[in-house]
Amino acid sequence: MAFVLDVSETPEDQGSPEPSPYDESAVHDSFHQLIREQSQRAAEEGLELQPLGPGAGTLGPSGSDHQALLGPEGAAVYSAATLRILASMPSRTIGRSHGAIISQYYNRTVQLRRRASRPPLSGLARSARPSLRLYDLELDSTALEEEEKRALLVKELRGLTPAQRDHMLRAMPLGLAEKRRLREETQTPRGKRRGRPRLPSCCSRLSYARVPASHHPGLGLLSGLRALAPWHYALKRIGGQFGSSVLSYFLFLKTLLAFNVLLLLPLLAFVVGVQAAFPPAPRGPAPAFTGLELLTGGGRFTDTVMYYGYYSNATLNQPCAGPLQGGQCTPEAAGLPYNMPLAYLFTVGAAFFITCITLVYSMSRSFGESYRVGSASGAHAITVFCSWDHKVTQRRASRLQHDNIRTQLKELLAEWRLQRGPRSVCGRLHRAVVLALVWLLCLGITLGCTVAVYAFSELMIQSPVSAQPEGALLGLPFVVGLLNLVAPYLYRGLAVLERQDSPVLEVYVAICRNLILKMVVLGILCYHWLGRRVGALNNQCWENFVGQELYRLVVTDFLFTLLDTLFGELVWRLISEKKLRRGKPEFDIAGNVLELIYGQTLTWLGVLFSPLLPAVQVIKLLLLFYIKKASLMANCQAPRRPWLASHMSTVFISLLCFPSFLGAAIFLCYAIWQVRPSSLCGPFRTLDTMYEAGKVWVRHLERAGPRVSWLPWVHRYLVENTFPVYLVSALMLAMIYLNIQVVKGQRKVIGLLKEQISNEGEDKIFLINKLHSVCEKKERSRAGRMQAAVTPPALDAEDWDPWQHSAGPGSPASAHRLGPAPTALQTHTPP
Fold first, then answer.
1. Secondary structure of residue 49 in the 3-state scheme
2. CA 162 to each of CA 173, 210, 382: distance values in angstroms, whole numbers, following the listed order
3. Would you say residue 68 lies in a domain?
4. What range does the domain containing 167 cover?
5. 16-47 pLDDT tens trace
6. CA distances for 688 relative to 344, 678, 684, 809, angstroms
7. What b-and-e string marks burial along 331-367, b requiring 16 or more CB atoms within 10 Å of the CB?
8. In a domain, 44, yes or no
9. Do the domain assignments include residue 102?
10. Can you tell me the distance from the alpha carbon of 52 to that of 574, in angstroms, rounded to the nearest whole number?
11. With a threshold of 0.85, does the pTM exceed it?
């Protein structure tokens, strides 16, 4: 028969559910002290012994209740005394007492009100779960004292300003209903007032909102920009309905939009805006606008700030006192010269440098979020128990959050259930042959597209540009766009033969094939522009032609994306539903993402020859967002095999950084350092290379005087010398190596900490077992003492004479009926 310790509940324990000990993951330093205190308290109160059910274990040979801790399914079964001890542990008492929270914020409100100067709102700490041991609080055991604390808190809150009161109420770790009651009580005036509380007027709301805006002027601007964002609600809806895999495409589009805005702002401020304020003399009558310029980028757009050839090679904002001999003019003392060639070169370089820093930072941050140090073994529990936002009260928002959590659980379960069964030798050989054949066919398609682009570009070079009609310039962009549209469908058809087990691997393979195609095509085009067109356009502005060609590629890429959305999604959805009875098609993540990377690469390639090309890309991305969102909601369905795109955004950013941005940077560096500029247009028309604009500026500074003599030294030893480049590269490699070693060390420390937590959990179970045995021994000893006090001592067997208590003297028969002598006999009191 097994026994379990039971302690009678106190009044404060009634009505509150007993906490479960199964979710303990850490051990407090004062655990042993709590065990000692609670064991003494349990011994003083008195412990009762109650029999366990049939599923419990039995006592061990040592008398301790070790086996009673295991239930019928192997789970631990704890008594009420143990549960009370666990409930009083420090990790269980944090943020649980309602009266303690009221007391804490009452004290905090008094301190805030008594300050001479009101502190900024940023100084107030937002404590979500206050620790009762960090504050010397008196836990109220009765409701009366709690109500008194509550009344004092309301009184003190009324003495605060509205902004501080709202901030304090938001920081309280209480329920929404309790916060609403406190808000209503604090907004009620001191005099008695009947009826429903009146909501604050618009003017009062503006005055309340003015206080945090005065401390943080950027908060209002950030909130306004967030309200203007087109993805404020749509991204949540897409993530809840289609999952994180489809959502990653729209998040990547949002990232590209931010990169283009960041690239466009310095160009508008230091190049386009300045040249528009000081336009050069017109070369002739402007051609009429026909509408074809929107596709070709030529015609009326040629002599505008859109292209490189419009910008001047003179020093702007240099007023002249009067023309002198030789057509020279003397600058006034108040004039501020603006060197347009130098500004053009440095602005493009600075914009690319800022983009590079932002891109590397985004990639490192994405890596940190996707590949966290440690494991993600608790993702399922976190999603189940910690995903719901209890501040959501609207039906629409709650339904959206419900769909989002459901989709996340589907993805987690699908990734968990994905298991690859072992294949036989013949099966693996057959799969290797199929994969090799598919890859050979895909590489053959890529080679055919590359040959087609090269042959058509050579055909375009044979006829002069001036003799071609304006519509014929769209030939090469349309061929490139058509190949980029058809080839991904061929890849998808061949991917059906592979039958990949993992949908994530299927997407990665498709991205790899499309990336190879687009990078090879762009390499052929770069050779066509800088290797062939520069020699063919000796007497013309070849920079304008390259800028127009890149503009045409961006526009035709957008047009073919619209055709793909119309025929590839809408028409295929109608055919699949009406004829094939298969339902809606799935969203092609790989193809659409590679289209975004391809368009962004075109923008980076053309920013030197068309400074406003990032503005065109911004408009294109905004239109793509709304078009793709509408097509996704109407023509596509969620993936049939849900999968978790935990690393997808990181892969997209990495592809954008290394093949795309790095290739564009190499292209522009070659154009700036090696290619001779046109002698008829542009800010570098009189120089051998674009880079010589910096050398001319340095020579001008050397003649300016000793005050700026350090700038030529910086240019000579830090820019022209290659040693700093190698030094910076070596330092970056050393930092990367040290970062890798730090991450390895953190992983080892995390492993040791996890092992320590596991050992501490075992120690906790051992202490609980010891507590059971100690309490049981104390109860047995006390029961033994009570029994010894009530029951007289028994006679010794050696001093016992059976004939003295026989039926009578001389009755041996009665003595024989007694049988064997007992070991102990209780004495009877004579009547």
1. strand
2. 19, 11, 36
3. no
4. 145-186
5. 443 343 333 433 444 445 455 555 554 554 44
6. 16, 9, 8, 145
7. eeeeeeebbbbbbbbbbbeebbeebeeebeebbeebe
8. no
9. no
10. 67
11. no
